Protein backbone atom coordinates (compact mmCIF):
# COMPACT_ATOMS: atom_id res chain seq x y z
CA UNK A 1 0.00 0.00 0.00
CA UNK A 2 1.25 3.50 -0.82
CA UNK A 3 1.77 5.56 2.30
CA UNK A 4 0.14 8.93 2.40
CA UNK A 5 2.69 11.71 2.50
CA UNK A 6 1.06 15.06 1.98
CA UNK A 7 1.98 18.72 1.98
CA UNK A 8 -0.52 21.41 2.90
CA UNK A 9 -0.01 24.75 1.17
CA UNK A 10 -2.18 27.86 1.47
CA UNK A 11 -2.11 31.26 3.17
CA UNK A 12 -2.31 31.73 6.94
CA UNK A 13 -5.97 31.55 7.96
CA UNK A 14 -7.05 29.24 5.11
CA UNK A 15 -7.84 26.47 7.58
CA UNK A 16 -4.74 24.44 6.73
CA UNK A 17 -3.88 23.57 10.30
CA UNK A 18 -7.42 22.55 11.26
CA UNK A 19 -7.90 20.40 8.17
CA UNK A 20 -4.42 18.90 8.35
CA UNK A 21 -5.07 17.81 11.93
CA UNK A 22 -8.48 16.27 11.14
CA UNK A 23 -7.15 14.45 8.09
CA UNK A 24 -4.07 13.15 9.90
CA UNK A 25 -6.30 11.71 12.67
CA UNK A 26 -8.59 10.17 10.08
CA UNK A 27 -5.69 8.59 8.15
CA UNK A 28 -3.87 7.61 11.34
CA UNK A 29 -0.64 9.38 10.36
CA UNK A 30 1.46 12.05 12.12
CA UNK A 31 0.48 15.70 11.68
CA UNK A 32 3.74 17.64 11.49
CA UNK A 33 3.16 21.38 11.90
CA UNK A 34 6.40 23.37 11.80
CA UNK A 35 4.55 26.35 13.33
CA UNK A 36 3.48 24.20 16.28
CA UNK A 37 6.96 22.76 16.74
CA UNK A 38 8.44 26.28 16.72
CA UNK A 39 5.81 27.66 19.13
CA UNK A 40 6.59 24.84 21.55
CA UNK A 41 10.33 25.45 21.22
CA UNK A 42 9.71 29.15 21.88
CA UNK A 43 7.66 28.42 25.01
CA UNK A 44 10.28 26.02 26.31
CA UNK A 45 13.08 28.48 25.56
CA UNK A 46 15.19 25.95 23.62
CA UNK A 47 18.02 27.28 21.39
CA UNK A 48 15.80 26.86 18.31
CA UNK A 49 12.95 28.62 20.12
CA UNK A 50 15.16 31.54 21.10
CA UNK A 51 16.42 31.85 17.53
CA UNK A 52 12.89 31.72 16.10
CA UNK A 53 11.13 34.08 18.51
CA UNK A 54 11.84 37.48 16.93
CA UNK A 55 10.97 36.28 13.42
CA UNK A 56 7.71 34.69 14.55
CA UNK A 57 6.62 37.70 16.58
CA UNK A 58 7.03 39.91 13.50
CA UNK A 59 5.25 37.45 11.20
CA UNK A 60 8.47 36.84 9.25
CA UNK A 61 9.78 33.45 8.23
CA UNK A 62 12.32 31.74 10.44
CA UNK A 63 15.59 31.11 8.48
CA UNK A 64 15.53 28.13 6.10
CA UNK A 65 18.52 26.49 7.78
CA UNK A 66 16.63 26.19 11.10
CA UNK A 67 13.59 24.66 9.41
CA UNK A 68 15.62 22.27 7.31
CA UNK A 69 17.33 20.71 10.32
CA UNK A 70 14.05 20.48 12.19
CA UNK A 71 12.27 18.74 9.28
CA UNK A 72 15.20 16.46 8.47
CA UNK A 73 15.14 15.16 12.02
CA UNK A 74 11.35 14.88 12.33
CA UNK A 75 10.79 12.97 9.07
CA UNK A 76 13.30 10.36 10.13
CA UNK A 77 11.53 9.51 13.35
CA UNK A 78 9.95 6.05 13.33
CA UNK A 79 6.30 7.13 13.09
CA UNK A 80 7.00 9.28 10.03
CA UNK A 81 9.09 6.56 8.41
CA UNK A 82 6.53 3.82 8.92
CA UNK A 83 3.15 5.57 8.78
CA UNK A 84 3.61 8.56 6.46
CA UNK A 85 2.81 12.16 7.38
CA UNK A 86 1.06 15.42 6.71
CA UNK A 87 3.44 18.36 6.58
CA UNK A 88 1.60 21.53 7.59
CA UNK A 89 3.46 24.81 7.08
CA UNK A 90 6.51 23.35 5.35
CA UNK A 91 7.82 24.00 2.76
CA UNK A 92 7.21 27.74 2.77
CA UNK A 93 10.01 28.93 0.46
CA UNK A 94 11.51 27.63 -2.79
CA UNK A 95 14.72 26.84 -0.90
CA UNK A 96 12.73 24.62 1.48
CA UNK A 97 10.85 22.95 -1.41
CA UNK A 98 14.11 22.14 -3.19
CA UNK A 99 15.56 20.87 0.08
CA UNK A 100 12.59 18.50 0.50
CA UNK A 101 12.96 17.23 -3.10
CA UNK A 102 16.54 16.25 -2.28
CA UNK A 103 15.90 14.96 1.24
CA UNK A 104 13.00 12.60 0.49
CA UNK A 105 14.78 10.16 -1.85
CA UNK A 106 17.77 10.20 0.53
CA UNK A 107 15.57 8.88 3.32
CA UNK A 108 13.53 6.56 1.06
CA UNK A 109 10.38 8.61 1.14
CA UNK A 110 8.27 10.42 -1.42
CA UNK A 111 5.44 12.93 -1.23
CA UNK A 112 2.40 11.99 -3.29
CA UNK A 113 0.16 15.05 -2.89
CA UNK A 114 0.37 18.81 -2.30
CA UNK A 115 -2.97 20.29 -1.24
CA UNK A 116 -3.37 24.00 -1.82
CA UNK A 117 -6.25 25.50 0.19
CA UNK A 118 -7.32 28.86 -1.27
CA UNK A 119 -9.29 31.66 0.42
CA UNK A 120 -9.79 35.34 -0.55
CA UNK A 121 -7.57 37.87 1.30
CA UNK A 122 -10.43 39.77 3.04
CA UNK A 123 -11.76 36.51 4.48
CA UNK A 124 -8.28 35.63 5.76
CA UNK A 125 -7.77 38.90 7.66
CA UNK A 126 -11.13 38.57 9.40
CA UNK A 127 -10.58 34.87 10.26
CA UNK A 128 -7.09 35.54 11.63
CA UNK A 129 -8.38 38.41 13.75
CA UNK A 130 -10.95 36.08 15.33
CA UNK A 131 -8.30 33.42 15.95
CA UNK A 132 -6.11 36.02 17.66
CA UNK A 133 -8.89 36.65 20.19
CA UNK A 134 -9.51 32.95 20.77
CA UNK A 135 -5.94 31.69 21.01
CA UNK A 136 -4.04 34.77 22.11
CA UNK A 137 -1.24 34.13 19.62
CA UNK A 138 1.37 36.89 19.66
CA UNK A 139 1.64 36.71 15.85
CA UNK A 140 -2.05 37.44 15.27
CA UNK A 141 -2.21 41.24 15.74
CA UNK A 142 -3.51 43.06 12.67
CA UNK A 143 -0.14 44.47 11.66
CA UNK A 144 1.54 41.08 11.99
CA UNK A 145 -1.33 39.36 10.16
CA UNK A 146 -0.89 41.72 7.21
CA UNK A 147 2.85 41.07 7.19
CA UNK A 148 2.26 37.30 7.24
CA UNK A 149 0.01 37.66 4.17
CA UNK A 150 2.66 39.73 2.35
CA UNK A 151 5.34 37.17 3.23
CA UNK A 152 3.03 34.40 2.03
CA UNK A 153 2.55 36.15 -1.34
CA UNK A 154 6.27 36.76 -1.80
CA UNK A 155 7.83 33.57 -0.44
CA UNK A 156 5.22 30.81 -0.37
CA UNK A 157 2.81 31.46 -3.26
CA UNK A 158 5.57 30.59 -5.82
CA UNK A 159 5.42 27.02 -4.48
CA UNK A 160 2.10 26.55 -6.28
CA UNK A 161 3.92 26.85 -9.57
CA UNK A 162 6.76 24.66 -8.25
CA UNK A 163 4.37 21.79 -7.45
CA UNK A 164 2.38 22.29 -10.64
CA UNK A 165 5.59 21.46 -12.50
CA UNK A 166 6.72 18.68 -10.16
CA UNK A 167 6.74 15.16 -11.57
CA UNK A 168 6.90 13.58 -8.10
CA UNK A 169 4.07 15.37 -6.33
CA UNK A 170 0.55 16.07 -7.64
CA UNK A 171 -0.88 19.50 -6.83
CA UNK A 172 -4.58 19.76 -5.98
CA UNK A 173 -6.39 23.03 -5.26
CA UNK A 174 -9.23 23.01 -2.73
CA UNK A 175 -11.65 25.93 -2.19
CA UNK A 176 -11.23 26.84 1.49
CA UNK A 177 -14.17 29.24 1.58
CA UNK A 178 -16.73 26.52 2.40
CA UNK A 179 -17.84 24.79 5.58
CA UNK A 180 -15.26 22.81 7.51
CA UNK A 181 -17.16 19.53 6.98
CA UNK A 182 -17.48 19.94 3.21
CA UNK A 183 -13.75 20.61 2.89
CA UNK A 184 -12.90 17.65 5.14
CA UNK A 185 -15.06 15.36 2.97
CA UNK A 186 -13.26 16.51 -0.16
CA UNK A 187 -9.86 15.90 1.45
CA UNK A 188 -10.89 12.41 2.57
CA UNK A 189 -11.89 11.55 -0.99
CA UNK A 190 -8.60 12.89 -2.35
CA UNK A 191 -6.58 10.67 -0.04
CA UNK A 192 -8.79 7.54 -0.24
P1 LIG B 1 2.12 28.63 11.25
O1 LIG B 1 1.55 28.10 12.54
O2 LIG B 1 2.34 27.54 10.23
O3 LIG B 1 1.32 29.76 10.70
O4 LIG B 1 3.59 29.21 11.59
C1 LIG B 1 3.77 30.24 12.53
C2 LIG B 1 5.10 30.93 12.30
O5 LIG B 1 6.17 30.00 12.46
C3 LIG B 1 5.29 31.52 10.91
O6 LIG B 1 4.72 32.80 10.77
C4 LIG B 1 6.83 31.56 10.83
O7 LIG B 1 7.36 32.62 11.58
C5 LIG B 1 7.22 30.26 11.52
N1 LIG B 1 7.29 29.13 10.55
C6 LIG B 1 6.51 28.01 10.52
N2 LIG B 1 6.84 27.22 9.51
C7 LIG B 1 7.86 27.83 8.85
C8 LIG B 1 8.62 27.53 7.70
N3 LIG B 1 8.40 26.42 6.99
N4 LIG B 1 9.60 28.40 7.33
C9 LIG B 1 9.85 29.52 8.03
N5 LIG B 1 9.15 29.89 9.12
C10 LIG B 1 8.16 29.05 9.54
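-> sequence recovered:
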Amino acid sequence: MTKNRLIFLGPPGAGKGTQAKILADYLGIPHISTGEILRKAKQEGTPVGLQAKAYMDRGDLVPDSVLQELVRERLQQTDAQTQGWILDGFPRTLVQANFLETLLPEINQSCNLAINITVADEVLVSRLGKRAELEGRSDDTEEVIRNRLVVYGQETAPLIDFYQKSSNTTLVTVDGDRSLEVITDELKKLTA
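The chain has ten helices and five strands.
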